[in-house]
Specification:
Blueprint (H helix, E strand, L loop, with lengths): L1 E5 L4 H19 L3 E5 L11 H9 L4 E3 L10 H8 L2 E2 L13 E5 L5 E8 L10 H12 L6 E6 L3 H11 L5 E5 L9 E2 L5 E3 L6 E2 L8 H10 L12 E10 L6 E10 L1
Helix pairs in contact: 1-2
Length: about 260
Amino acid sequence: MKILCIGDVVSRVGRDMLFKYVDDLKYKKNIDFVIANGENATHGRGLARNAYDELMRAGIDAVTMGNHTWDCKEVAAIMKNEGNVLRPANYSKGCPGEGGGVFTAKSGERVGIINLIGRTYLEPSDSPFDAAEREIAKIKKSTDIILVDFHAEATSEKLAMAYFLDGKVSAVFGTHTHVQTADEVIMENGTGAITDLGMTGPQISILGRECTPIINRFRTGMPQKFEVAGGKGQFCGCIFEINPENGKCTDIERLFIRE
């Protein structure tokens, strides 16, 4: 089976790119299930109801989050009522929502998804490694097909997670840095991995934001207002092909589409 994983969807531009490419990719690539990181979908910060609804209309099956999970208050109600939005599993147990879930693909196969957040250069959270083991133990009761979105800053932490989970899950993909890496690999024990899927959003931008204020901040050190950029978009992600018999990754296709 083939699972399309889409990197951080940023603002109106990113959502428009989903409408332009998801259905076409589903048809041409015979995609069975689609995952998108939606923590930046509402004006670059969080996931509000209108943005969630657009992601669903664009053909997204499950949404993962990250450090901007709580930037829109509506997200807690969305998690409770819809069931297909995950927040990092290593957040406090008192947080709304779930960090892992099992979903049904169009092929009828059950797909497990785990959302984790890194601890390097990000706000304090519980161990993502311990959380991963807990969620895997639960999901393995239903399926061997498990994909992990590790929303983290440091390449080293993402690679550590990929090696830690090699052979335990089908794929580990990084999100958060908004820059796609060219290191996709099927690891020794059959887990597909890539350090970062990249950003689906404004092409002419710095991580989805207007360039000039960020340049001024780097030049002067003075506070600036970072607005999301507009204009042409880009679409970033990966297609992981998974053997449903054993949950191992058999192929990875990296996607980077620029308008």
